[in-house]
Amino acid sequence: MDQSVISIIIGAVALIVGIVGGKFIFAKDTKKKVEEAEQQANTLIREAELRAETIKKEKQLEAKEKFVQLKAEHDKEVLERNKKISEGENRVKQKEIAINQKDTALDKQIKENEAIKENLNRQIEVVNLKRTELEKHQEEHIRRLEKIAGLTAEEAKSQLVESLKQEAQTQALAIQQEIVEEAKQKANKEARKIVIQSIQRTAAEQTIENTVTVFNLESDEIKGQIIGREGRNIRAIEAATGVDLIVDDTPEAIVLSSFDPLRREIARLSLQRLVSDGRIHPARIEEVVEKTRKQLEEQVMEIGERTVIELGIHGLHKELVRIVGKMRFRSSYGQNLLMHSREVANLCGIMAAELGLNPKLAKRAGLLHDIGKVPDEETELSHALLGAKLAEKFGENPAVVNAIGAHHDEMEMQYVISPIVQACDAISGARPGARREIMQQYLQRIKDLENLALGYQGVEKAYAIQAGRELRVIVEAEKVSDTDSDKLSFEIAQKIQTEMTYPGQIKVTVIREKRAVNVAR
Q1: Is 214 helix (H, G, I), strand (E, B) or coil?
Q2: Apex CA 251: angle with CA 249 and CA 252, to 5°?
Q3: Within 10 A of 177 (CB to CB), how many other CB atoms are there?
Q4: Which end of the chain has fewer CB within 10 Å, C or N?
Q5: Chain Cα centroid distance, residue 512
Q6: In angstroms, rounded to a whole number, what is the distance separating the alpha carbons of residues 347 and 353?
Q7: Cα(423)–Cα(431) distance, rounded to whole angstroms?
């Protein structure tokens, strides 16, 4: 056999022997590992069985302890429940005993009452017998009296009643007359007392408004600035405010003249701001006057609010509060309207309190009774009816509305406070020195003068100045031409001459001004 073939065969046999030997060694190692794993598994099983046994015993012990604890709690609850039941049974027994005792006492009392009732019945029978005997004796006595007097009992009774009736009527008439006379005396005395107390307890300061206001200056040099070049500043002030500025030789003073206190106040405040600012020219004057007018509107509201707070009046509509504030700048026959209304309100409150009425309602009616004298628009109604209409419009009490409308007998008085307001208005206005009739006539003439000019078409503003001796009429340049201005001045003068009564003469000045305004930005 060839040597190479033999070598191949030997190599193959060696390879086979190596493979078989390797498998034998691997099988031997695997068997050993399996045996070790079985031993570990048996060990773990035993440990698990021991641990499970231990846990089982612990749980059994815990269950026994829990059972013992629950049993003890149950026994305790049973004991407590049995105790409460026994206590309840004891209370029930005690109540039963008490009820039995009461039943016994009640039975005893019933027996006693029955005995008392029998005793009373016997006494009633005795009384009835005695009454029967008494009636027989009385009838016998009456028969004897009738026999002696020759009259029956009914006739004697009638004669006695008639004589007593006549005597009682005579005495009643005398007493009635005395009561009436005494009541009249006391009523008059009490009425005088109430009125006097009301007047004495009211110490309202009275201010008689004039038609001029003096504006004080720091020096006379400021007068030149106020007048301006060729008088343009003073003309601008007069045109914007409707107030006549009198600049004379009076040192450090300028006189503001106007029948309207509100205009004078606007002019005074405007001058004060202009002088403190130092810039006085027509454009600045108009700007300051407009700002002052708005500021005064706020001041009017503040005056009204302060007045109602001081008088203790609540829930007044804001528009009525504003009207009350406007009364500060109005006068009635020379008497300041706000001071007059405050005085009437205080008098009404005091008088209503004295008479046992509602003082707050009376005070409210007294304050508002003249609100018709400061209307925002001219109307044909009297101030009393206009005031009632305004009060009703702004939700006032019907008693207040009636008191306002009836304080001059223009409405029927339907409430008790209405005559109180009328009386207090008369007390405040009719006392000596309170009013000046001539002043009121003068102010009315000035108003009529301005209203006459405002009735023409194209007239923007109209101011009566120089105590009514001059009427300045400011017209709109777009509606009135220069030629129409001359014609308007003549027509107004003729109408004043024919329709109005006035002392001296009145100068009518129509002012037409064309402006072109642009703003540089």
Answers
A1: strand
A2: 125
A3: 10
A4: C
A5: 50
A6: 10
A7: 12
Q: In what order do the strands lie in the sheet with 212-216?
A: 212-216, 253-257, 244-246
Q: Which two tokens stand for residue 80?
A: 């407590």
Q: How many CB atoms lie within 10 A of CB 27?
A: 10
- DSSP characters over 129-158: HHHHHHHHHHHHHHHHHHHHHSS-HHHHHH
Distance in angstroms (rounded) separating the CA atoms of residues 485 and 513: 11
Q: Are strands 507-512 and 459-465 parallel, antiparallel or unpaired?
A: unpaired
- Nearest Cα neighbor of 476 from 484, 468, 465 is 484
When computed from its CA atoms, the radius of gyration of the chain, rounded to whole angstroms, is: 58
pLDDT number for residue 18:
64
pLDDT averaged over consecutive 10-residue blocks of the chain (521 residues)?
Answer: 61 65 60 82 86 88 89 89 89 89 87 87 88 84 72 70 75 74 70 60 42 70 78 83 77 76 82 81 85 85 89 88 86 75 90 88 90 79 88 90 89 89 80 51 81 90 81 89 87 88 78 80 70
Q: Which two tokens stand for residue 435?
A: 């009013």
Q: What is the pTM of this model?
A: 0.45
CB distance 280 to 226 below 8 Å = yes
What are residue 474's phi and psi, to 5 degrees? -105, 125
**Could you tell me which residues come within 8 angstroms of residue 112 by beta carbon, excluding any fewer than 6 positions away?**
none
- Which DSSP helix (H) or strand (E) runs through 26? helix 3-149
* Helices 383-393, 318-326: inter-axial angle, 10-degree rounding: 150
Q: For the range 143-149, what are the long-range contacts, defined as Cβ-Cβ under 8 Å and sequence gap of 24 or more?
A: none
